[in-house]
Amino acid sequence: MTMETTTTDGSLETYEGLLAAISASEGTPVLDPATGEVLAHAPASTPADLDAAVEAARAAQPAWEALGHERRSAILVEAADAVDRSAAALAELISREQGKPLNGPGSRFEAGGVSAWLRTAAATELPDETLLEEPRATIAYRAVGLVGAIGPWNWPALIASWQLAPALRMGNAVIMKPSEHTPLSVLALGAILGQVLPEGVLTVLAGDRDLGAALTTHPAFGKIMFTGSTATGKAIVAASADNLPRLTLELGGNDPGIVLPDVDPAAIAQDLFWGAFINTGQTCAALKRLYVHEDVYDAVVEALRAVASQVPMGPGIEEASALGPLTTSDQFAIVDRLVEDARASGGRIVLGGDPDRDAPGNFYPATLVADIDAHAALVVEEQFGPALPIVRYRDLDEAIALANGLDVGLGASVWSADAAAARTVAARVQAGTVWINSHGGVHPMIPFGGIKGSGYGLEFGVEGLKAVAVPHVING
Ligand code: NAD
């Protein structure tokens, strides 16, 4: 069977056209983090809007599933093409709303990632498997039906694509609730994809945490994908208990990096810096606490200072900016509190730590804190911002114990001139992913997910497709 899809008239390929298509004349104000001024208003969807979206999704999903993998994949490739045509406009909107720079690992990279994840989901196969020939047993993976997706504000469009691309690929209909701080970027993505997807297959509903809570208790959803804080993840587990939807929970992290004594500090400083400061530190799997062996400690701190002091910070939409503002004033306050606590408890501020609290926008300077106590709040709490604590260690076992000592386990990294030695250490670190000589890079075919308080379930690759499907075993 075929389904009608609408075609683009090009209006979503400019920033003005995109914003006009998704913003509301009244509704929830969305702030520009670089100025504190209102950027635009997002529609405020209600539980009644959620019910209407559920009805539309229920009506559309069976035909979407019946299209089959090949046709759905072809439509996802068309969707990626549409994202590419609107990439410049989408990137500008992300920079204005979320704050990240256009360049480097910024909003143009984010828009490109959305396209890449759609294309990879389209190209990934999940065939039926024969488990046993005699007695015969097979397993197939079928659509769940309706998938609900709730997202954070740090990589709004990219993380939305991580949720919707595999879910659509497997034949589900998707209803998304973006963060109240960055609804426009996800509404824009929904509008762009709406040019090629059948009506009702994907709906983006902007709303606050109450709308998120309504989604997690709605009986329509067979699967809920959540990316956000550990506290909200726990609330979703409790709220969803009556309906028992399947859950993927990508929660907070506090990723350690362990630097072994054999490194060349100057050679690793750039990668260490960007591992920690990507998106101005607002990244789930960023390097958030660094443990450096005493033999190279001073040299690593100095090499990091040399890199960090050269990185320009400014509004995301200025081409020269490499770091932007924090997305929310609340996040600014968290970073400010943790750095002041570190200073008061004897940490040495090597760089930064001196924000202009009266200036417009949520700009907190890149900050390095050395000689900090291993149990200071800046080390053991997730800062989610541009302030890196650097802890000195003498004994590797002690460093590994500190790395494993928290109740989260998203990512981690080990840095060494000897890759085999680094892998041996990596095997002892409790995290969903341990990188060697880099931190935080994700790939659409490499499964990603946390352990402990960082959540459960995997995204990306074949594992990611299985996570938005239900298994169907035929035995006999
Ligand atoms: P958050 O938990 O405050 O909000 C995330 C989303 O949940 C928002 O859309 C919000 O409206 C919604 N929400 C809030 N309360 C809810 C409830 N009771 N029921 C349903 N939905 C609810 O998180 P945030 O501040 O937007 O994001 C920052 C956090 O996300 C950090 O801890 C970061 O580490 C984590 N994060 C994790 C990953 C990952 O892949 N593991 C990726 C990005 C961010």
**How many H/I helices?**
16
The CATH class name of the largest domain reads: Alpha Beta
Structural class: alpha/beta
Largest sheet report: 7 strands, mixed
Q: Report the helical percentage.
A: 25-40%
CATH H-level superfamily of the largest domain: Aldehyde Dehydrogenase, Chain A, domain 1
Unreliable stretches covering 5 or more consecutive residues: 1-7
- Biggest sheet: strands side by side, in what order? 12-13-14-11-10-16-17
Ligand kinds: nicotinamide-adenine-dinucleotide
- At the fold tier of CATH, the topology name of the largest domain is Aldehyde Dehydrogenase, Chain A, domain 1
Keywords: Oxidoreductase
Pfam family, one: Aldedh
Organism: Agrococcus versicolor
Protein name: Aldehyde dehydrogenase family protein
